[in-house]
Structures are given as structure tokens and as C-alpha cells.
Design goal:
Layout lengths: L3 H4 L5 E3 L5 E3 L10 H18 L2 H115 L2 H14 L1
Antiparallel strand pairs: 1-2
Length: 185
């Protein structure tokens, strides 16, 4: 049965079944050890990169990316300044709107006061007209009442005179009265 060192790859010496360790030789090619081949491969890779101008492409790509980021930053600064200008413009509009609203409120208050004053003046004038109309109606009613009293008094006087004349005058008194009127003419 293999031991643990054999399974794991052993290293410089292997121990086989309890016997003495056996030394292994690392493989070489063209007289170079494996770590030398790794170094040569890396050197060739770096030379190919340089020959194909990969560092220039990398720096060119990075420069392009930097330029793109710069343009984005410039655009962001421009947008920010535009946004600040819009903010200032709208702040000014809001202040203007507030002033307009204040002016509207002042005008509305003045108009309301004017309407109230006009309504008071109109109501006073209407009260005065109604009072004058009432006084005129009362005066007319008094005149009508006085006229009715006069008419009633005249009618009563005429009736009373008729009764007196009819009671005191006879046919002879009427004849004498008629003669006297005729002579006066």
C-alpha cells in the first residue's frame, strides 16, 4: 500500500514500503529546470506584449477612459450649473408669485372695503329715501284725511243748511229771497 508521501507526490525522496528513501531527479529540457522555463516563458510573453504594443494599447484605452470620464464630469458640471440656474430662476418666480399673491390680497382687501363702504352709503341713501317716501305718504294721507274731513264737513254743513232753510223758510220767504236776488242783479 502506498504511503502518504507517495500519494502527495513525494518531493526529493520517496519511501516505498518501509524501505529507504529513493532520490528522484527533477526533469530538465535543454539543460533548464522547470522554474527557468517559467522565467523564459514570462520573458517571451513580455517581449510579445512589447512587440505588439500592448502597453500602448492599455495606456491608450486608459487615456480614452480618462477622457470619457472627464467629458462626463464636464457634462455633469454643466448640468449642475444649468440646474442651479433653473433653481435660481424658479426661486425668483416663486418670490414674484408670492409678491403677486400679496398684491392680489391687498387689492382684494381694498375692493372689499370699497364694496362695504358703498353698501353702507347705499343703505343709508335707501333708508333716507324710504324715510322720505314714508313721510310723503304720511303727508299725502294727512292731506287726504283733511280733504275728506272738509268734504264731510261741507256735506254736513250743506245738509244742515238745507234742513235749516227748509225748516225756516216757507214759500213766502223763498219768494222774498228770490225777489231780493233779482233786484241785486
Amino acid at each position: 500500500m502506498p504511503n502518504l508521501l507517495t500519494i502527495l507526490g513525494g518531493g526529493a525522496a520517496d519511501i516505498a514500503d518501509g524501505s529507504e528513501p529513493v532520490a528522484h531527479v527533477d526533469p530538465t529540457a535543454l539543460g533548464l529546470a522547470p522554474y527557468n522555463w517559467v522565467g523564459v516563458a514570462m520573458l517571451v510573453l513580455v517581449l510579445v506584449f512589447i512587440w505588439k504594443k500592448v502597453p500602448g494599447m492599455i495606456t491608450g484605452g486608459l487615456d480614452a477612459k480618462i477622457a470619457e470620464i472627464r467629458s462626463q464630469l464636464d457634462e455633469a458640471k454643466k448640468l449642475r450649473s444649468e440646474a442651479e440656474a433653473l433653481r435660481a430662476e424658479y426661486a425668483a418666480k416663486i418670490k414674484g408669485a408670492e409678491k403677486d399673491a400679496e398684491a392680489m390680497m391687498d387689492n382684494a382687501a381694498r375692493e372689499a372695503d370699497a364694496i362695504v363702504e358703498k353698501a353702507e352709503a347705499d343703505s343709508k341713501a335707501m333708508v333716507a329715501r324710504r324715510k322720505q317716501m314714508a313721510e310723503d305718504k304720511i303727508a299725502a294721507a294727512e292731506r287726504d284725511a283733511v280733504e275728506q274731513v272738509r268734504v264731510a264737513a261741507a256735506s254736513a254743513a250743506a245738509l244742515a243748511s238745507q234742513k235749516l232753510i227748509a225748516g225756516k223758510h216757507g214759500a213766502e220767504a223763498d219768494k222774498a229771497l228770490a225777489d231780493e236776488l233779482i233786484n241785486s242783479i
